[in-house]
């Protein structure tokens, strides 16, 4: 029988939820139970033993696991930028849906790696109860055919996650390894802003097929986008290109178009960094309204120019992905 994890139990019964956390993460010993509350620590990661002890960070970084693929997942695509509010989550959600829509044979998943500010539950219209399968892996929630996992399924929306670096890194590893993702052709990862612990943990733990950088055409956002793109280059993650979001405003009244943030910023950045613009997404009320109400434009207004923009970007992303190679070719499987 499946076990329930996450906020449903946390809100009703702390002890049970704590117990279920230990059941998922057996390395946390039961004697550490009393050190923390599940509201702050739904994974049961002992703050005292990790972030606070002297030398802990050095010890962990020495013992970092080598990169190995997520079981059953062929290609990982991260959607990133240096800055918040530029539309990463909007692009990640619509990209995942567009990948699945463009090629009906492909299975797509969506991981919300924004531990502090998860958006996927709202944008994908999903609410958690997360269950464990027989292998004790968390089962993703599914909507529009996309398998999704988010911290938002595991903690209450109102309770802020107040973790430090090491706890975030640990949570990310669990969201990668302790979720029944497979079989997936593409796992799209919606990144938090910046170039911090999450970005580092991800790029050190799993092979990433490519990064999609989202930016608005404003200079400041572009500067941040550059930092994001450079970080990925440094850790040998191929940058597939830039999505220029909110570049053109379509006036819903008269239909006229206006480049409110300037026209050429992203093109210039792309040229300077030797990157391609994967596409432009207009600033459109519908994109916001639909995404924020859990009906992303790619599925709810399929034929609209906005949806087509995302589908074209998805096509370009697939073209630019390196060919997938089976890391366990026949005969090598154990
Ligand atoms: N092209 C767009 N047109 C209109 N609204 C947009 C567009 N892209 C994003 N938004 C809105 O902007 C806000 C921030 O977007 P979000 O994807 O959450 O950004 P991030 O993940 O980078 O913080 C959301 O309310 C979203 O609906
Ligand atoms: Mg976001
Ligand atoms: Zn107008």
From TrEMBL:
GO molecular function: 4 iron, 4 sulfur cluster binding; ATP binding; ATP-dependent FeS chaperone activity; metal ion binding
Cofactor field: [4Fe-4S] cluster
UniProt gene name: LOC106166209
Entry GO CC: mitochondrial matrix
Protein family: Belongs to the Mrp/NBP35 ATP-binding proteins family.
Functional description taken from the UniProt entry: Iron-sulfur cluster transfer protein involved in the assembly of the mitochondrial membrane respiratory chain NADH dehydrogenase (Complex I). May deliver one or more Fe-S clusters to complex I subunits.
Keyword Metal-binding: yes
InterPro entries, A to Z: Mrp-like_CS, Mrp/NBP35_ATP-bd, NUBPL-like, P-loop_NTPase, YlxH/NBP35
Organism name: Lingula anatina
Descriptive protein name: Iron-sulfur cluster transfer protein NUBPL
Sorted UniProt keywords: 4Fe-4S, ATP-binding, Iron, Iron-sulfur, Metal-binding, Mitochondrion, Nucleotide-binding, Transit peptide
Principal location class: mitochondrion
Location of the protein in the cell: Mitochondrion
């Amino acid at each position: 029988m499946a076990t329930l994890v996450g906020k449903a139990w946390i809100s009703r019964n702390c002890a049970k939820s704590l117990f279920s956390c230990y059941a998922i993460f057996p390395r946390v010993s039961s004697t550490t139970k009393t050190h923390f509350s599940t509201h702050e620590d739904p994974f049961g990661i002992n703050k005292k033993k990790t972030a606070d002890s002297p030398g802990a960070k050095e010890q962990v970084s020495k013992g970092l696991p080598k990169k190995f693929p997520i079981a059953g997942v062929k290609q990982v695509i991260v959607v990133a930028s240096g800055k918040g509010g530029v539309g990463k989550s909007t692009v990640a959600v619509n990209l995942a849906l567009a990948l699945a829509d463009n090629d009906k044979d492909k299975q797509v998943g969506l991981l919300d790696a924004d531990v502090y500010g998860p958006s996927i539950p709202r944008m994908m219209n999903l609410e958690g109860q997360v269950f464990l399968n027989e292998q004790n892996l968390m089962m993703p929630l599914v909507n529009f055919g996309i398998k999704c996992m988010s911290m938002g399924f595991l903690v209450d929306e109102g309770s802020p996650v107040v973790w430090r670096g090491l706890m975030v890194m640990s949570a990310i590893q669990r969201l990668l390894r302790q979720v029944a993702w497979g079989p997936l052709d593409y796992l799209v990862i919606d990144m938090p802003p910046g170039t911090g612990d999450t970005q580092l943990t991800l790029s050190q733990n799993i092979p990433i097929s490519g990064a999609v950088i989202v930016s608005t055409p404003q200079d400041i956002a572009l500067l941040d986008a550059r930092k994001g793109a450079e970080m990925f280059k440094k850790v040998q993650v191929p940058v597939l290109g830039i999505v220029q979001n909110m570049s053109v405003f379509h006036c819903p009244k008269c239909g006229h178009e206006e480049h409110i943030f300037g026209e050429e910023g992203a093109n210039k950045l792309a040229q300077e960094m030797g990157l391609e613009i994967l596409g432009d997404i207009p600033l459109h009320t519908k994109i916001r309204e639909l995404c924020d109400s859990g009906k992303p434009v790619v599925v709810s207004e399929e034929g609209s120019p906005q949806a087509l923009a995302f589908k074209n970007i998805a096509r370009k992303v697939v073209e630019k992905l390196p060919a997938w190679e089976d890391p366990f070719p026949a005969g090598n499987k154990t």
